[in-house]
Amino acid sequence: MTFTADCLLLFGATGDLAQRMLLPSLCALDADQLVAPDLRIVGTARQKLDDEGYRDFARAALEKFLPEERKPAIEPFLQRLHYQPLDATQTDHFAALAAKVGPVEGGLAIFLSTAPSLFEPTIAGLVGSGLAGETTRIGLEKPLGTDLATSRQINDAVAAAFPEDRIFRIDHYLGKETVQNLLALRFANLLFEPLWNAAHIDHVQITVAETVGLEGRVGFYDGAGALRDMVQNHMLQLLALVAMEPPASFDATAVRDEKVKVLRSLRRIECDQTVTGQYRAGAIGGSAVPGYDQELGQPSGTETFVALKAHIDNWRWKGVPFYLRTGKRLPERVTEIVVRFRDVPHSIFAARGARTSPNRLIIGIQPEENITLSLMAKVPGLDRGGIRLREVPLDIAMDDAFAGPKKRIAYERLLLDLVEGDQTLFVRRDEVEAQWDWIDAIRACWADNAIEPRPYTAGSWGPSAAIALAERDGVTWHE
Ligand code: NAP
């Protein structure tokens, strides 16, 4: 059902995500008049605050996390904020919350920024207090489960109260401009699509590299690991967007129908197509950093790095490897997709001593948003000693190309879509479950073969076996 909510109810309103991302995003949307003047924002968490107390809390977060030029927008934004203390495990706390929210006929958008263990009691409380009716939609933060079984349990609990068209599963990568640009690149240009298949593409690489270690996520990360924290959601979504067939239109059903077909076509991975690692003490940017077990304070079998060679068993991608790698304490923070085309079938320059390199399309997602196409060009000169060719980049730096429009962070886009009810950039249940199904098989394979993460030095690109995984096929990771 399409409606624009006139109230946003934020669970986990005092949490890290709320402070760093959600409140700053809402404040930016407010400053640019992108939300209706009468949108009320009600925050809730256990901390005992009143409206003014929460406004003070939000002010401190916004002062810390908003860029300087946005700060004049803080005071007017704070007037939208209201707060009701609540323990989500206590059903009887929800009546007071419902009273604070007030009538919901004008549309209520709920954002659950709490641990998934609270989803079930929260939904029971919402139902019991009349906050889960037809004019309510609900947004859920990851992680949606730790495997297919727990993901189904969460999905079933949510589905008992909300139909799929009112459930908004967040994968914040989908809110990123460059990720959406991938669709524009593929489907708003004639140039690439005829070449976008096994006949012309040699392989695809997707890298999500972090320089940080555990940070404050000790409790969560050690139970999850890189495969579940990064590959199951963000990286498989990127893979699906790269590999999907053209949807008939840019709408929620058409786009998600095509993504889920890709996810279901992923071939089961054998253990020897995976490499896992865990960082040891090393150096990042010249500074010494401890190993994972030192940060954790105990030995652990959790992988902080994973590299995979995946295949999509369909007509378009037959035989094209998708190399995926992600890890913590790698030398640089970078998220990128590299599409390596095949070499020209015959080089007319070979007899004159020149070598060609296959074209590469590099889509940088963070920290810089840019798209680079490597092309072969002749090195200027009279060529007396033979022709020399060299790769030169055709670069689109998105910041330069679009200096005018304001850059929006992912949560601005996603919060707005949640309030307005556009599901295109949210993940459907069948996608999440196809993702878990594939990930569970990898974890089962690791368990059956007692695979332990290999050590790698912080500041390196992971265990050498990850390099070998690609080099066996004559492929070099893009660095
Ligand atoms: P967090 O800092 O631990 O915040 C949790 C929030 O939930 C707090 O506001 C906490 O406030 C509230 N809460 C805890 N127990 C509660 C209860 N029984 N009843 C009501 N409220 C309760 O977590 P976070 O980092 O903001 O993350 C929130 C969710 O987003 C998690 O599922 C996380 O995995 C996910 N996520 C976070 C990030 C990130 O960058 N932080 C990124 C992606 C996904 P009180 O203690 O006052 O109740």
Automatic annotation (TrEMBL):
Keywords for this protein:
Carbohydrate metabolism, Glucose metabolism, NADP, Oxidoreductase
Annotated substrate binding lies at: 172, 176, 210, 229, 328
Active site location = 234
* Keyword rRNA processing tagged: no
Q: What EC number(s) does the entry state?
A: 1.1.1.49
Gene3D superfamilies found in the cross-reference section: Dihydrodipicolinate Reductase, domain 2, NAD(P)-binding Rossmann-like Domain
Q: Which InterPro entries match?
A: G6P_DH, G6P_DH_AS, G6P_DH_C, G6P_DH_NAD-bd, NAD(P)-bd_dom_sf
Leading EC class: oxidoreductase
Residues annotated as binding NADP(+) are: 46, 142
Q: Cite the Pfam families for this sequence.
A: G6PD_C, G6PD_N
Specify the pathway. Carbohydrate degradation; pentose phosphate pathway; D-ribulose 5-phosphate from D-glucose 6-phosphate (oxidative stage): step 1/3
What catalytic activity does the UniProt entry give for this protein?
D-glucose 6-phosphate + NADP(+) = 6-phospho-D-glucono-1,5-lactone + NADPH + H(+)
Cited PANTHER family:
GLUCOSE-6-PHOSPHATE 1-DEHYDROGENASE, GLUCOSE-6-PHOSPHATE 1-DEHYDROGENASE G6PD
Record HAMAP family: G6PD (MF_00966)
Similarity-based family: Belongs to the glucose-6-phosphate dehydrogenase family.
Per the entry, what this protein does is: Catalyzes the oxidation of glucose 6-phosphate to 6-phosphogluconolactone.
**Which protein, by its recorded name, is this?**
Glucose-6-phosphate 1-dehydrogenase
Originating organism = Novosphingobium bradum
